[in-house]
Amino acid sequence: MWELTKTGWASGIRSHSIRWLLMIAVAVIFIAWLAANFSARQPATVALDVGLSGIRLVLMLMALFWVQELLGKDIERKSLYFVLAYPVSRGVYLISRFLAVAALLALGVLLLGLALGAVMAMLPVSYEQPTPIRLGGSYALVLLGIWLDLLVITAFALLLCSLSTTPFLPLILGCFFALAARSLGVSLQFLLMPGMEGSTENRYLLPVLNAAQWLLPDLSRLDWRDLSLYGLPVQWPVLGWAVLMALAYCGLLLSLATWKLKRREFL
User: Fold this and answer.
1) What is the DSSP letter of 264?
2) Nearest of 44, 32, 82, 94 to residue 229 by alpha carbon
3) Tens-digit pLDDT profile for residues 141-151
4) Cβ contact 261:188 at 8 Å
5) Which keywords belong to this entry (predicted)?
6) What percent of the chain has pLDDT over 90?
7) Rama region for 231: left / alpha / beta (φ>0; ψ in -120 to 50; rest)
8) What whole-number distance in Å separates Cα of residue 139 and Cα of residue 161?
């Protein structure tokens, strides 16, 4: 498994993804700097918020790209046949691809997180904010939450690759899955606010979202940016349940992907 994982890692590196990550890091830094300059109040908080949103969006696309590069193209080009000719099970092959993408995403989170943190540390401050940002352990927890969020999206994309015969279907549906899972909790909180009981949105959307939460993970639970933006105290039980949810969902998706890949006939 580790040899296949290292091969997947090398394939991801050779795909010029690191060059793209460095270019994206520069873009994220520039956008965060612009956000700080256009904000009249709490510029550091606004800049960090915009930067974290950019990291989540960019690395989501990179995760889907790496899944397509490491598994989708192997199936499309039939190079998977040569791998399966060796005494390696399809489940081991799939898990090795997941671990390779997870390692690439960890590198991406580290590079972009360090770049954004360096900008925030060097950002000129014209006045002291009432709630200063935190770039220590709280910021590290925020980046960990982003990485776990991306792992769930990666596992879902691998499941789609294991059953899809259309090359770009995992990329398209992966984007919709990420959008739906990340907005599920926020949408439910909005509909359950006081005063929304008799609204049209509550009447039609709430039953749909209540059903969707049994199928989709609430990835908004992994968005811990408030710890760094506003210096809120860490609620370890809440974070622990969110991590458990992410790992359990990854395990479920990878199990389904392995089951489907084992039964798929390649022609």
Assistant:
1) P
2) 44
3) 999 999 999 99
4) no
5) Membrane, Transmembrane, Transmembrane helix
6) 25
7) left
8) 33
Strands (DSSP E) contained in 68-169 are: none
DSSP-derived letter for residue 232 is P
Q: Which of 234, 250, 77 is nearest to 152 (CA)?
A: 250
Q: Quote the strand ranges of the chain, DSSP E.
A: none
| pLDDT 10s digits, 100-111 | 999 999 988 998
Q: pLDDT band for position 198 (50/70/90)?
A: low
Distance CA 62, CA 32 (A): 20
Reply yes or no on whether the pLDDT at 156 is more than 90: yes
| Residue 11 or 186, more confident | 186
Q: Assign residue 88 a region: left if phi > 0, alpha if psi is -120 to 50, beta otherwise? A: beta
Predicted confidence (pLDDT) at residue 82 exceeds the cutoff of 60:
yes
For residue 252, give the amino acid letter: L
Burial 132-171 (b: 16+ CB within 10 A, else e): ebbbeebbebbbbbbbbbbbbbbbbbbbbbbebeeeebbb
8 Å CB contact between 8 and 96: yes
Residue 188, both tokens: 């439910």
Tens of pLDDT, residues 209-260: 777 788 889 999 999 999 998 888 889 999 999 999 999 999 999 999 888 8
Radius of gyration of the chain (CA): 20
pLDDT, position 26: 77
Given its phi and psi angles, is residue 30 left (phi above 0), alpha (psi -120 to 50 degrees) or beta? alpha
